[in-house]
């Protein structure tokens, strides 16, 4: 249990550092890549959860993450195509992917109630981090109005996910 | 008229009804309509009479619910609509179970 919390803390730190490091304002192609990557990461976490848990509230949460993040990423793909923007890989996206892989490895070792709790706690922390980045960095940096508007929809959606995760977490106790 | 134009017109009419005030979210067919768009219930507050049908129309690509804590729940799939027949004790607050930052109120009036 101790190692798990240490790993979770490390993941949170890595994420904070990830967004803090990006002192330079990201460009629209980079923002699109970061937002898309953040969605893919949560879909993959949901797929892991669906392969591991049978707890109804956790299953419902993971299914909702999978569907919502896929839907918003489809919107993002349609928008970048329309705008002729090619999403550009960048240090923030790479750090996000690396932190997520470490988190997945940690979660993969857990089962049952320990998995449920670790997955949901991670989801609360992850959505909080992403929402912070959207509010303070990605939305203010976005130049294109349609991209900005999609990010604002994403923020409302992810704030909802954070609250949903908090409700599920409260129910697990 | 294409379905797209039709829905746009319905949307405009609903918009006008919202501007006109509370209870006029109701449409010609007697149902009280609540649009769901961009993760919000519009209008968020509605007045209904017991026995009237509330219809949520989900224009988002996300599944939503209208959930009353400790009470009923209506699931509204993406791009679909769903209904609930108001009862006398339906003066309630509701929220979306998947996105609890989405909230609405129903007031049952005589
Ligand atoms: Cu919702």
UniProtKB/TrEMBL annotation, chain A:
Annotated signal sequence range: 1-22
InterPro entries membership: DUF4142 (IPR025419), Ferritin-like (IPR012347)
DUF4142 domain ranges (all copies): 27-167
Keywords per UniProt: Signal
Superkingdom of the organism of origin: Bacteria
The UniProt record lists the keyword Transport: no
Protein name, UniProt field: Putative membrane protein
Species in which this protein is naturally found: Mycoplana azooxidifex
TrEMBL record, chain B:
Classification via PROSITE patterns: TAT
Gene3D superfamilies attached to this UniProt entry: Cupredoxins - blue copper proteins
Classification via InterPro entries: Cupredoxin, EfeO_Cupredoxin, ET_Amicyanin, TAT_signal
SUPFAM superfamilies: Cupredoxins
Superkingdom in the source lineage: Bacteria
EfeO-type cupredoxin-like domain mapped to chain residues: 13-106
PANTHER family in UniProt: BLL1555 PROTEIN (PTHR36507:SF1)
Name of the protein this chain belongs to: Plastocyanin
Annotated organism of origin: Mycoplana azooxidifex
Phylogenetic lineage: Bacteria, Pseudomonadati, Pseudomonadota, Alphaproteobacteria, Hyphomicrobiales
């Amino acid at each position: 249990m101790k190692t798990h919390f240490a790993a979770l803390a490390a993941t949170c730190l890595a994420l904070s550092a990830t967004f803090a490091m990006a002192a330079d304002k990201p460009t629209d192609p980079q923002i699109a890549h970061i937002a898309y990557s953040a969605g893919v990461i949560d879909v993959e976490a949901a797929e892991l959860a669906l392969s591991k848990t049978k707890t109804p509230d956790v299953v419902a949460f993971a299914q909702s993450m999978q569907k919502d993040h896929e839907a918003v990423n489809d919107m993002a793909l349609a928008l970048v195509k329309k705008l002729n923007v090619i999403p550009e890989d960048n240090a923030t996206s790479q750090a996000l992917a690396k932190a997520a892989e470490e988190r997945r490895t940690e979660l993969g070792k857990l089962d049952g109630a320990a998995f449920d709790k670790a997955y949901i706690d991670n989801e609360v922390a992850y959505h909080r981090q992403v929402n912070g980045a959207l509010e303070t960095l990605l939305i203010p940096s976005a130049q294109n109005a349609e991209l900005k508007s999609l990010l604002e929809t994403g923020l409302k959606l992810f704030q909802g996910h954070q609250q949903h995760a908090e409700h599920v977490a409260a129910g697990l106790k | 008229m294409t379905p797209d134009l039709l829905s746009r017109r319905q949307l405009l009419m609903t918009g006008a009804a919202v501007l006109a005030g509370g209870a006029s979210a109701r449409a010609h067919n007697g149902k009280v309509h609540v649009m769901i768009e961009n993760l919000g219930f519009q209008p968020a507050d509605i007045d209904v009479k017991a026995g009237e049908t509330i219809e949520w129309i989900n224009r988002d690509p996300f599944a939503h619910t209208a959930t009353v804590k400790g009470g009923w729940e209506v699931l509204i799939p993406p791009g679909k609509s769903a209904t609930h027949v108001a009862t006398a004790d339906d003066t309630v607050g509701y929220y979306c179970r998947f996105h609890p930052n989405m909230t609405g109120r129903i007031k049952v009036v005589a």
